[in-house]
Design brief:
The protein is 60% helix and 0% strand. By secondary structure, the chain is mainly α. The longest helix is centred in the N-terminal third of the chain and has 29 residues, at 7-35. The termini are far apart.
Length: 167
């Protein structure tokens, strides 16, 4: 009878655990930025990261010489993109409206902004990862930066004792 776990399996598990111990916090921060949740309450980001790590673990033996962080980041971005704007209401259906600066952005704007500025991925690589043209990535990034850098809309004040109705 064959042993249940071989030394190679044990090595694989230890390598993956070491990878998650080293990169897990950074990957969770990335997922939290994508979902626009708060760091204290981020169940969607945690689920997104768990699914991306599961995919990375399944591919672990085929990553010979490749950067596992880049692979996991690609899985995160792909799963977020598919859940956020390709399949309405799937994995990333909002429980409540997230608050914060990035919450003002669309999921696509948030993804492009985080990949380009936080992760430092080149425009062409971002375009290839998301299946967009480089020009589209540039336009989305510009729109996202404009939204982030512009002040939030102020509530309108009452004029002549009549309150304005929010639109």
């Amino acid at each position: 009878m064959r042993p249940r776990h071989t030394s190679q399996d044990d090595l694989r598990v230890r390598e993956f655990e070491a990878y998650v111990a080293g990169a897990g916090t950074r990957l969770l921060h990335l997922a939290t930025l994508l979902t626009a949740e708060t760091p204290d309450d981020n169940p969607r980001a945690r689920r997104l990261l768990t699914l991306a790590l599961a995919r990375t673990y399944a591919s672990w033996d085929r990553l010979h010489g490749e950067d596992p962080y880049a692979h996991t980041r690609q899985c995160l971005a792909t799963r977020f993109a598919n859940g956020a704007w390709h399949r309405r209401g799937g994995l990333l259906r909002p429980r409540a409206r997230p608050a914060g600066l990035l919450a003002r952005l669309s999921p696509q704007e948030r993804l492009v902004l985080v990949l380009r500025l936080r992760e430092g991925i080149a425009e062409e690589q971002t375009a290839a990862l998301l299946g967009l043209s480089a020009e589209r990535v540039r336009a989305v990034l510009h729109r996202a930066m404009t939204a982030v850098l512009s002040p939030p809309p102020r509530p309108t004040s009452a004029v002549g004792g009549v309150k304005a109705v929010p639109s």
